[in-house]
Design brief:
By secondary structure, the protein is of the alpha+beta class. It is built from 8 helices and 9 strands.
């Protein structure tokens, strides 16, 4: 009996790109992304479009914080920052350190008066073209009675619906603040765009839930707002202490640029310039 061949993989972010084909010139400085079959710039455009569709607008920051050249040739980190009615800060970063790695990172910090978790998403591509994505909604509001229906279940459905990538739980160190709707996904060489598709769907699902999340206004909501702020800082501290970002960024871009970027990413108070919230 003849078996039917699976149709060739097509990227929704760059329909003319095929894994294994000669890469476009924009891929020349990002070999890991080429091997993974991911158009990172296209993924970033899709994320920005989704955020702006939900009311995101540019949050101004110095150019030196948004574009950081690396120590190695063609290494760079490019970031855009948005805010909105319910979003205190959304940070999306594309980075490349050829030939060692490429990837993107995203965080969405809800405003403290919104009962919603912090969104964490990153996509890391190894030199071999294998890719890993970590997706989670953590911290604030995860103990709220409506959290499972509003956030955890729809987000978990996105993870569970990803048929191609291999799935596992979030790292153990993140579990104490995880909302239970996240996970870690991995793909083989040439299949990284499947992870990118899941990442974009995950972000879109989170933003849709964020629009419906209840707000705590007035004096009666002060306790809830403070609780949300404390929970958000707990997420920041856990990721800062256990995640590999500081180590990788320091090696590729230097200690000071890495620290400035992480303060921007986590909305940390600048010691000299004040709080850029």
């Amino acid at each position: 009996m003849k078996t039917r061949k699976a149709p060739p993989f097509r990227s929704p972010f760059r329909p003319d790109f095929r894994p294994g084909a000669a890469p476009p010139t924009t891929y020349a400085v990002s070999l890991p992304a080429t091997l993974a079959g991911v158009d990172l710039a296209g993924v970033v455009r899709a994320l920005e479009a989704e955020l702006r569709r939900r009311g995101g607008r540019t949050q101004t920051h110095p150019v030196g914080e948004l574009f950081v050249p690396g120590k190695l040739p063609n290494a760079a980190m490019a970031t855009f920052v948005l805010e909105g009615e319910r979003i205190a800060r959304a940070v999306v970063t594309q980075l490349r350190v050829p030939p060692f790695m490429a990837g993107l990172a995203l965080v969405v910090h809800p405003r403290a008066d919104v009962d919603a978790p912090v969104l964490l998403a990153d996509l890391t591509i190894a030199p071999t073209g294998r890719a890993r994505a970590l997706l989670d909604a953590a911290g604030p509001a995860i103990l709220a009675p409506s959290f499972a229906d509003d956030f955890a279940t729809p987000l978990a459905r996105v993870i569970d619906g990803s048929l191609g990538p291999r799935r596992s739980t979030v790292p153990p160190w993140l579990a104490p603040v995880s909302g239970g709707g996240g996970g870690t996904l991995r793909s083989e060489r040439g299949r990284g765009d499947e992870l990118a598709q899941v990442l974009v769907r995950y972000v879109a699902t989170y933003l849709a839930a964020l629009e419906r999340a209840p707000r705590r206004t007035g004096s009666e909501g002060e306790g809830a707002r403070r609780s949300n702020e404390v929970a958000a800082r707990a997420v920041r501290d856990l990721v800062r202490a256990n995640g590999p970002a500081k180590r990788w960024l320091s090696r590729a871009f230097g200690e000071a640029p890495a620290e400035r970027y992480l303060r921007l990413f986590w909305r940390e108070r600048e010691r000299r310039e004040g709080d850029r919230s």
